[in-house]
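Give me structure tokens for this 400-residue protein.
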Amino acid sequence: MTCPAHLIRTGGDRIGLFVLDGLGGLPHPDHGKTELEAATTPNLDELAGRSSLGRVQLLPPGLTPGSGPGHLSLFGIDPLQLEFGRGLLEALGSDYALEPGQIAARGNFCTVDGNGLVQDRRAGRPSDAECRRLCARVMEEVSVDGVTIELIPGKQHRFTWIITAQDLGAKVNDNDPQVSGKGALPFRGQDPVSETTAAIATEWLEKAKQCLGEEEVANSALLRGFSTKPHVPGFAERFHLHAAALAVYPMYRGVARLVGMQPRDAGAGLEDQVAAVKSAIAEDYDFIFVHHKDPDTAGHSGDFAAKVVAIEAFDRALPGFLESGLDVIAITGDHSTPAVMKEHSWHPVPLLVHSKRALPNLESTFGERACLHGDIGTIRGPELMPLLLAHADRLDKFGA
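Here you go.
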């Protein structure tokens, strides 16, 4: 454990953790600035001038974090010591209490050509309504003997695939090739019970493709992150915090629920989240996690300008968050998604921590290179929570 339990106090200031998904970037070849450095962010820059700056290394150097491990790291857990698939987080984020004997996987509706090669891994990002329709059709028309199969629709192309049967294992590979122009991978199990799961997934997918064969929106599916539910001590137990999560997308509500936060209605975006923060404070939550997805979406698309716009949108919403009554403000990312790479990367993410106990820095901007010279330095992800507890006056002195 990064922070000895006996040092944690039961009272103190309120903490807000704002995670801009995929925040970290790399310089654009035309002008040499990252997305964060290129964005017009007067509110972030003003706050940076009276805050502590640094960087967060979510996983050991060189290892690229997925969204689940990246958030767990920020929440004070070493992701390398807790293995599970993304399917669990999707299920929990959809308010589905995964039980022993059940397996969950993250699903993408996709499009494939006549040769079975994946043409669009996200099926053109259909509307939520279309996703619900597709899920309903597949559930009605596709079955596997002896298995209960449920599809929970998510945002756009995403859904959660849940099976209930005897003797199932979660050690099954993703079938997502991660790039267009390649065929989906065959499901393989690493042990006998996981081979059972792989066989069910294979049969279901073949039948689902037949069901979707004439659909214009999507004609196949990709499954990844097969998982069961592990036991994870909650925020109340570990940090004596009454924690709320404000995330629009189910996966991020799921990882928050896994660590003992209470997911609350976050509305449709930043404006709604400002109101939701104020509501959570009124209900005596003393730790509030706010998730902003758009920078990551743009990064994956390789759209540098769109990622800049997503960062600027958060900057415009920032005054509302600052006026809500939080005492400690932390702004960072769960990983880097440079638009020039179109994927997550291993680079540390910028970090800003503001409180009455922060040491104002000499930088007047919030960006990768400004944070590189900040007083916090580069810390490991699980070290962030003790730092925030200290800023909130929630830690006792260690030793005599």
